[in-house]
Specification:
heterodimer, A: alpha/beta, six-stranded mixed sheet, five-stranded mixed sheet, B: alpha+beta, Immunoglobulin-like, 3 domains, eleven-stranded mixed sheet, five-stranded antiparallel sheet, 15% helix, Gpi16 subunit, GPI transamidase component (chain B)
Chain lengths: 493, 551
């Protein structure tokens, strides 16, 4: 006790000086902490989380106006009320969430209004532009309501829905003429593709130009072997070959057919005309009972369409296919393109008077469908980004990601605002989709995704562990000394 | 059966593919050392089509419809508006002295890519060059993406366009890069097949058997795209291999057949090739026998037509008459007596000598094997990490210094971490003598991250290129190029566990210093009287002090 008191008299031994030295060190360390924190932390800008979460309530709604034409003497007033209630009742709730059907008895000043006409002299029910001309002067309101619902909303079966390729403003259509083995003879050594396209295919593409742009490319291959042997069958007493349903799933031999192309990022839809070699002719598609089916075309969902073509028996040499010859094949490709792009079919028994392959009703319904899909998938993507960033704390979020997300949100809002007419809604929704997926796949977000904490420890431990020991030990020591001194003081008192 | 079909097809005269032509050709040359030089060439011509004008790059491209032309290559060419393109991937060292000039000049070891690209687009030539490299890297499964700006030069004196360059009102630029560490292998050959109209299923391409080709003493593939005014765009895919029939022969004979060379025969002809022939160089002096009889003779070549004939043969055989076993009389051309034996006009030797990891000297010896002086351009494109000192350049010939032999030098100095050296000059090699050039070099110390994964192996230096200028033919299109072998340079390589060692070492040091200082500052020093010293302590002043911690 007395010794301690002696020591304290020397100024540098005094407890105060020692404490202040300790405090100074600790102060430096504590002051440096924020600097260390900012220089080592990952840039994570705050994302507009609340805006993304609000998206769920803010849905796309397409107003649809149907005008009943009163010129043919039908009581449109009564019919319109009836139709309105029937349609509202029969539309499923999730469709009613985005489709707002208004039936009017009087003309409305809108160019995109649909007009239902009653034509007593007509035999068939027809569509022309946005008009629906009912045969025989009209049918029961219930039938009419069903017809209108079918025309306004595309009915996809589950199988159809699987086939539809994801929306993209631009597709590349790759036409390939594949000979299984041209060296064996009687093969297609060329095709008049330009002529065929302009005659049978370009009109189809033009009818879709509101939705998509297309880049076309084509190639011919003379050796495109199959990865399997087709099944041997007997058809009409002759030997033939067949492709079972399982064969079709592995039909595309990507190892040997160089179909992929590297130059651009646009999604590709392939259209393959396959000419079997003479040793595999004729080649038929088989049904589940292994009987040949009539059609020779099939679709690989979201990938493209394939037509297997057997030459007529009068072909004796190599063939250069003319556009007349290719007509049936390319009309099959046209139908395949429609299914791949989700073009709804007209309800049964309805004739289109339009010169284009696609009626206005189908086009509008497709535009609405595609905009809706885009909005739904944009919303999903944005939710996923927020969730992902929330879950992975090492994920950097930089300015470009934040900007993309904000722009996607803005585009989505523009799409909601412009849902009055389908075309701009589609454009905005497509833009939103592009931006959101670009944000999702931003390579900058992956930079430190897998930076293991072990590395951090490996770098910090050699310095911080030895340094912290002498720093902590005196603090503990001084604290114990101070407490001991205090107790002794109390004892003395 | 097949012949009948072929005849029927010939009568049909393919009306649809008149704007596209495909020709295939195999040249076989018996070489002086008993080996067999082979060159496959597959040419597709797209008639009356010109390359894409870079000005149109901003807009949409025309639809691309090809029958014979490879679509994947066409897409790349149009995407980046490339006028002329040459890519070669080779393995081995071409022996000019015994094998002579190759049928395809591009025999540089490793990868070589050069392209003529026009200006005028919104994207710069360098951006499109980068895109081209990456696209070709993807197409051919080769690491061409590594041909970055550190390896790209523009040696337009050595690499002249082989076709014509369209006049769009914008200049064309050359981009050239060597990648000496790249090796050609099966994964490069598979995409090569896919660019051929008949792949490897029919025609001469059937003979491209990877097991034999990659077993060859020298092998390499190349792709050439060029535009010829009035003709169109031409794609030429070639594969060259130097095979050794003696190595695979039990009685040391150099007789060969397609089956013995390639392990395959041509079973079916390519239905769409407009010309398909095998040409065998006829030896001048020695008696020999061909089976079957060649269908014609073209200059010094015996021609065998693979398609279109009355019969389809499957094999070609060549036997050396009265030769029981092959005696290689070809001695080393670099010995005094062997010099006259060299088939090549110029023999080049290039070495890099270094005493340590910092300095060295580059030595080039060029020998003229002919009776008259030869003028040649000399090109060095050395990456920045080996720096040439031009002022130390010494040229000696026949024991005397001959600075006058070097003329017309252009030199682009390197920029560390970005641009390689480009050195071009014209060298005159006097008849029958050897010119020795030496130049000092320094080797750079690379950054830790600049080293490749196998840093201890060293760095490959690209070959030097010599292009002999034929008298009165300066600027001729047909330039023979001589590539020197590549060099390996050993740079100072760090210990790659270094960063962690440094962290641990410096941390330990800092901790030690910090700990001592901190301890001194916060420790309490007390004075203690040592009891045992009482007797000597009579003066009462002598104390022994000891410093110690106090709890």
């Amino acid at each position: 006790m007395s010794e301690d008191a002696d020591d304290e008299r020397i100024f540098f031994q005094s407890r105060k000086v020692r404490w202040s030295i300790l405090a100074a060190y600790w102060a430096v360390i504590l002051l440096a902490l924020p600097l260390w924190w900012t220089t080592t932390s990952i840039q994570r800008l705050s994302l507009p989380t609340s805006r993304v979460e609000d998206l769920a309530q803010n849905d796309l709604r397409f107003p649809v106006h149907i005008v009943l034409d009163s010129s043919s003497g039908v009581d449109t007033k009564a019919l319109s009320v009836k139709l309105q209630s029937l349609i509202n009742a029969r539309l499923s709730p999730d469709v009613r969430a985005w489709l707002d059907v208004h039936v009017h008895a009087d003309p409305v000043p809108r160019v995109d209004a649909y007009v239902v006409k009653f034509d007593a002299s007509s035999q068939d029910t027809k569509v022309q532009g946005r008009n629906l001309i009912l045969a025989g002067g009209g049918s029961s309101p219930s039938k009419l309501a069903n017809l209108l619902i079918d025309l306004l909303t595309p009915r996809y079966t589950a199988a159809d829905e699987q086939k539809i390729a994801k929306y993209s403003p631009r597709y590349r259509l790759a036409f390939s003429l594949l000979n299984e083995n041209a060296a064996l003879g009687k093969s297609a050594i060329g095709w008049d593709l330009n002529g065929t396209l302009s005659r049978y295919f370009i009109p189809t593409l033009q009818s879709l130009q509101l939705l998509h742009n297309f880049t076309i490319e084509s190639q011919v291959q003379f050796h495109a072997p199959l990865a399997f042997d087709p099944t041997q069958i007997t058809h009409l007493g002759d030997n033939a070959h067949g492709l079972t349903h399982e064969d079709l799933t592995v039909f595309v031999n990507s190892a040997e057919w160089s179909l992929s192309s590297s130059a651009s990022n646009d999604p590709v839809l392939h259209f393959v005309l396959f000419i079997p070699s003479i040793s595999h002719r004729p080649l038929y598609l088989l049904d589940s009972e292994r009987n040949p089916v009539k059609s020779s075309a099939f679709i690989l969902p979201q990938w493209g369409g394939i037509v297997v073509h057997n030459f007529p028996s009068d072909v004796t040499s190599h063939l250069h296919m003319t556009s007349d010859y290719l007509e049936s094949i390319f009309s099959a490709f046209g139908l395949q393109l429609f299914s791949l792009l989700g073009v709804p079919e007209l309800p049964k028994g309805i004739i289109s008077l339009d010169s284009t392959p696609l009626s206005r009703w189908q086009m509008d319904s497709l535009l609405r469908q595609r905009s809706l899909e885009n909005v739904v998938s944009t919303t999903e993507t944005l939710h996923s980004i927020i969730k992902l960033v929330d879950q992975i704390e090492n994920m950097p979020v930089k300015e470009d990601v934040k900007g993309d997300i904000q722009n996607a949100l803005d585009s989505l809002e523009m799409a909601y605002k412009s849902s009055d007419s389908a075309k701009p809604a589609l454009e905005y929704s497509a833009r939103a989709l592009t931006l959101s997926s670009r944000a999702f796949f931003n390579p900058g977000m992956l930079a430190l995704l897998y930076f293991p904490p072990e590395h951090t420890y490996a770098i910090y431990a050699p310095l911080f562990a030895p340094v912290s020991l002498p720093l902590i030990a005196p603090v503990v020591r001084e604290f114990l000394a101070w407490r001991k001194a205090k107790r002794e003081k109390q004892k003395v008192e | 059966m097949l012949c009948v079909l072929l005849a029927a097809w010939a009568a049909y005269a393919n009306p649809g593919v008149e704007s596209e032509h495909f020709e295939e050709d195999l040249v076989i040359r018996p070489l002086k050392d008993g080996r067999i030089g082979t060159r496959f060439s597959f040419t597709t011509t797209l008639e009356d089509v010109s390359p894409r004008n870079p000005e149109s790059l901003d807009g949409d491209d025309d639809s691309q419809h090809y029958t014979l032309f490879p679509l994947t290559l066409g897409q790349i060419l149009r995407e980046y508006a490339i006028t002329e393109l040459h890519l070669s991937l080779n393995a081995g060292k071409w022996n000019y002295d015994t094998w002579g000039m190759p049928d395809e000049p591009g025999v540089a070891t490793g990868g070589e890519l050069w392209a003529w690209i026009a200006d005028g687009a919104s994207t710069s030539v360098d951006q499109r060059w980068q895109g081209l490299r990456n696209a070709l890297a993807g197409l051919f499964c080769a690491s061409l993406g590594a041909m970055d700006e550190q390896r790209t030069t523009s040696p337009s004196r050595t690499f002249r366009p082989e076709g014509s360059l369209p006049d769009w009102g914008h200049p064309h630029h050359l981009r050239h890069a060597f990648l000496p560490s790249e090796h050609v292998c099966t994964e490069n050959l598979t995409p090569f097949y896919k660019l051929l109209p008949c792949k490897s299923f029919s025609g001469i391409a059937t003979l491209l058997n990877p097991h034999r080709l990659f077993d060859a003493d020298w092998h390499g593939m190349s792709i050439h795209v060029l535009w010829k005014e009035g003709v169109g765009i031409q794609v030429r895919l070639t594969f060259q291999a130097v095979l050794d029939p003696i190595r695979n022969s039990w009685n040391k004979k150099r007789d060969w057949s397609l089956k013995s060379l390639f392990g395959r025969r041509i079973e079916q002809s390519c239905p769409i090739s407009s010309a398909s022939q095998i040409r065998v160089s006829i030896p001048e002096d020695q008696p020999h026998l061909f089976t079957p009889q060649p269908s014609g003779v073209d200059g010094s070549y015996a021609v065998f037509n693979v398609s279109g004939g009355e019969w389809l043969f499957t094999d070609v055989e060549m036997r050396w008459h009265n030769e029981t076993s092959f005696q290689n009389r070809f001695t080393d051309p670099r010995t005094a007596t062997g010099k006259q034996n060299s088939v090549s006009a110029l023999s080049v030797q290039r070495t890099l000598k270094s005493v340590n990891k910092y300095r060295g000297s580059l030595n080039v010896a060029v020998t003229n094997n002919r009776g008259d002086d030869i003028q040649t351009t000399y090109l060095e494109t050395i990456p920045w990490f080996v720096q040439l000192f031009l002022h130390t350049l010494r040229i000696e010939c026949n024991g005397t210094r001959r600075g006058d032999l070097l003329d017309d030098t252009t030199y682009t100095p390197p920029i560390p971490h970005s641009r390689p050296t480009l050195y071009q000059s014209t060298l005159t090699v006097p008849a029958g003598s050897t010119v020795y050039m030496t130049m000092d070099v320094t080797k750079a110390f690379l950054r830790y991250t600049e080293h490749p994964p196998d840093a201890q192996r060293g760095w490959d230096l690209p070959p030097a290129v010599f292009v002999p200028i034929k008298a009165g033919q300066k600027g001729s299109d047909e330039l023979e190029r001589i590539y020197t072998p590549i060099l390996l340079v050993d740079l100072a390589t760090p210990d790659f566990s270094m960063p962690y060692n440094v962290i641990i070492m410096s941390s330990t040091l800092i901790t030690f210093i910090f700990g001592s200082v901190f301890n001194l500052l916060t420790r309490k020093f007390i004075v203690t009287k040592v009891e045992g010293n009482h007797k000597t302590d009579e003066t009462g002043q002598l104390e022994s002090a000891s410093a110690g911690g106090k709890d």
